Amino acid sequence: MITVIGSINMDLVTVTSIDPSMGETVMGESFFTVPGGKGANQAVAAAKLGANVKMIGKVGDDPFGQEYMNYFNDMHINTESIQIEKSVRTGTASITVYNHDNKIIVVPGANHLMTSDVIEAYRDDILASEWVLLQLEIPLSAVEKVLEIAAEGNVGVILNPAPFHHIPSHWFELVTYLTPNEYEAKQLFEAYANDTEATELLKKKLVITKGNEGAAFFKNGELMTIPAVKVKAVDTTGAGDTFNGALAVALDDGLTIEQAITFAIKAAGLSVTKMGAQVGMPTKAEIEKMEVNHHEETRNAE
């Protein structure tokens, strides 16, 4: 089982052709809500790939919270460990899309109530997992508690250090893999530039996502890059979350880290060919179809 512990947000998206100034009112083009939050995104990515997924998190007792619980159930994600907080709002991200760019305001809501005590209450869930997926959209004290419990039970942990926060070096010992993007990896190395021991340990745990360049990891002390698949990108939102969910699935299936990264790159590549973070996340059948098509294209080119 893969257990995902993290944020659950409802994205409130407004599309406009006019970027309003402060105090100005303009007419927008469209509005829609989309399930989001890095934790929920990664859980959906893993579930769509056929994994047995449990989500640990919090939503409010508002309509967004109920909508999300129904959605998780439709996605066959175990919701037994999602707490519904009374008189609290579900986390939201208000997104204004203008000229192919966006402005985002995140209100954590119920996500902010994910304390270390809450994590302790789900100790048995964590210890029963093969892999745990974490991000940094819940309080860091809660993340640290998860790491400690997982280490006690020798449970594999993938920590996606996003949005970036400074993390203590002893976390490097507790995680199995850290999955920053290039910017986050740079921040980590800069933070520990004078600590050789921490830097060397960090290298052993890193899987660096590099967008349309693929992903990289250290093999025998050398940085090795696995190239991205060639696709026509439509929307890159959620590609990193797709990568992390797929990486967990592949490792849970017993693949080596190099094989797992290759699988995750394919999943992330397919995810950007459709609009929407979770909508674009692929199934295993879609990845297998892509592999067959790529093999045929390669054979025909010979």
UniProtKB/TrEMBL annotation:
Q: Which domain of life is it from?
A: Bacteria
Which residues take part in binding substrate?
9-11, 37-41, 137, 241
According to its UniProt record, which reaction does this protein catalyse? Answer: D-ribose + ATP = D-ribose 5-phosphate + ADP + H(+)
> Active site annotated at which positions?
241 (proton acceptor)
- Activation and inhibition: Activated by a monovalent cation that binds near, but not in, the active site. The most likely occupant of the site in vivo is potassium. Ion binding induces a conformational change that may alter substrate affinity.
Q: Sorted alphabetically, which InterPro entries does this protein's record hold? A: Carboh/pur_kinase_PfkB_CS (IPR002173), PfkB_dom (IPR011611), Ribo/fructo_kinase (IPR002139), Ribokinase (IPR011877), Ribokinase-like (IPR029056)
Establish whether keyword ATP-binding is in the entry. yes
Q: Which cofactor does it need?
A: Mg(2+)
Where is this protein localized, as stated in its record? Answer: Cytoplasm
Query: Which residues does the UniProt record annotate as the domain Carbohydrate kinase PfkB?
Result: 2-283
For this chain, one GO molecular function annotation is: metal ion binding
Q: Which GO terms describe its cellular component?
A: cytosol
Q: What does this protein do?
A: Catalyzes the phosphorylation of ribose at O-5 in a reaction requiring ATP and magnesium. The resulting D-ribose-5-phosphate can then be used either for sythesis of nucleotides, histidine, and tryptophan, or as a component of the pentose phosphate pathway.
Subunit structure, interactors included = Homodimer.
Family in the record: Belongs to the carbohydrate kinase pfkB family.
For this protein, the record's PANTHER family field holds: RIBOKINASE (PTHR10584:SF166), SUGAR KINASE (PTHR10584)
For this entry, the protein name equals Ribokinase
Source species: Cytobacillus kochii
Phylogenetic lineage: Bacteria, Bacillati, Bacillota, Bacilli, Bacillales
> What's the gene?
rbsK
